[in-house]
Specification:
This protein folds into 3 domains: 29-197, P-loop containing nucleotide triphosphate hydrolases (Rossmann fold), CATH 3.40.50.300; 201-274, Helicase, Ruva Protein, domain 3, CATH 1.10.8.60; 279-382, Arc Repressor Mutant, subunit A (Orthogonal Bundle), CATH 1.10.10. The chain is of the alpha/beta class. Helix content is 50%, strand content 15%. The chain has a 5-stranded parallel β-sheet, sandwiched between helices. A 3-stranded antiparallel β-sheet has the order 3-4-5, with no helix packed on it. The longest helix has 17 residues, at 147-163. The chain binds adenosine-5'-triphosphate and magnesium ion. The site of adenosine-5'-triphosphate (ATP) has 22 residues, from α3 and α11.
């Protein structure tokens, strides 16, 4: 097999950088998918899918709406409502040229003889141009939009719900604030179903992803390798896919037929290199130029708290001490955590204050915990770095 053939196969088996469209490659999330499908069947109801980066929001929206006539648009920073409406109509028109006629020279569309200018579409014009039969409109990455545009989308949702019940809007975005913003008006609230996505729950979901990828490649993931991927991925779909492809690549390059824990460890090295640049940059900036490695060990400790995403100073100091050559006191840990939560160290850590003596610390970026775990694996694998 040539390298090109191997890469083509690997990218068929795992898909770290692209949302899933094929239901056979979409695992777990049964309850969430049910909630989306129920709302799709409920006239006048619209959907918000929210959750952390890489949790699988776009995949859920796409897989749940297979078979529907649909258009999806990506929101951009600074997009106005009319810009979004234009994107929607142009996309709909290119996929349904028989239904809408586009007059590029004059930048307008016509439907049943009625002309609409595309430059300044408002909610009513958009509604008039959209089909009356069952139709799904996905607005992805709504969290990027300015608040004013989100408010206009809220208004539009309310309008649609009253007399265009066959159209379902799906808003996809990072963080709960999106759902909150759209729920701004009470009347919209009743028409919106929020579906939140977090980490994968059961190990069996992760195992299924690895088994399926393995079958495509003629590889078997050993139980130990699966356990390592569950742990290092921090159960995020994105990291499961990334570790799946990198460990399988190492195994295949050796001609092995079983993926071992060692392959996962070595794959993790390139997974950390491939991970989102913002994660790597934030991590490097956070551990930079300290005389001791205290910042690094604090981050390692925070990433490996037992089954907890946040911790108090004492717990983090204890976890960090497992890595350091001499124990890290709570006082030293507290000072380091304050710095890590500040601008100089890229705000890598966030705080939650629960009272005068109770502050909890967690990673600001939801994928950072998984990224730091990969770095720990690398370091232990390669010796001190
Ligand atoms: N249910 C699933 N089963 C298997 N893989 C999944 C599942 N959900 C997501 N993934 C994988 O995880 C990765 C992230 O998925 P997706 O792009 O849908 O997430 P997202 O939440 O939209 O991310 P972002 O916030 O970056 O837009 C993709 O590579 C996809 O292949
Ligand atoms: Mg997405």
């Amino acid at each position: 097999m040539t390298i090109a053939e191997r890469e083509a196969l690997l990218n068929l088996a795992f898909r770290p950088h692209y949302p899933i469209e094929d239901p056979d490659s979409f695992f777990g999330r049964e309850a969430e998918k049910d909630r989306v499908v129920q709302a799709l069947h409920s006239p006048g109801q619209h959907i918000v899918i929210y959750g952390e980066r890489g949790a699988g929001k776009t995949s859920l929206a796409r897989v749940s709406t297979i078979g529907y006539s649909r258009v999806d648009v990506f929101c951009e920073r600074e997009s106005s409502f009319s810009k979004l409406a234009r994107d929607v109509i142009l996309k709909y028109q290119s996929e349904n040229p028989a239904k809408l006629v586009f007059d590029a020279a004059n930048n307008r569309v016509s439907i049943n003889g009625v002309m609409k200018a595309l430059d300044d579409l408002d909610g009513n014009s958009l509604k008039a141009l959209l089909p009356k039969e069952t139709f799904v409109l996905i607005f992805d990455e709504v969290d990027r939009l300015p608040e004013g545009t989100i408010a206009s989308l809220g208004e539009f949702t309310k309008n649609l719900a009253t007399d265009t019940p066959a159209i379902t809007l799906i808003f996809v975005g990072v963080g709960e604030t999106v759902a909150e913003l759209l729920r701004g008006h009470d009347s919209v609230f009743r028409n919106i179903r929020s579906v939140g996505l977090g980490k994968f729950g059961p190990d069996s979901t992760i195992q299924s992803i690895l088994d399926k990828g393995g079958r495509t490649l003629g590889l078997i993931f050993s139980p130990e390798s699966i356990a390592s991927i569950v742990d290092a991925s921090d159960r995020y779909p994105y990291y499961v896919q990334l570790l799946g492809i990198t460990s399988a690549r190492v195994a295949m390059s050796e001609g092995a037929s079983t993926v071992t824990q060692d392959h996962v460890m070595r794959g993790a090295e390139s997974a950390a290199q491939d991970a989102d640049e913002t994660l790597r940059d934030a991590y490097e900036a956070a551990i930079l130029s300290s005389r001791s490695d205290v910042y690094k060990y604090i981050l390692w400790g925070l990433a490996t708290l037992d089954n907890r995403v946040e911790g108090a100073v004492g717990q983090i100091a204890e976890a960090a001490s497992r890595y350091a050559t001499s124990p890290i006191s709570a006082q030293v840990a507290g000072a380091a955590l304050k710095k890590l939560a500040g601008g100089d160290r890229s705000n890598i850590v966030s705080t939650r204050v629960m009272g005068p003596k109770k502050t909890f610390y967690s990673f600001s970026h939801p994928l950072m915990r998984g990224f730091v775990r990969l770095r720990i694996i690398n370091a232990n694998h390669n010796g001190p770095q």
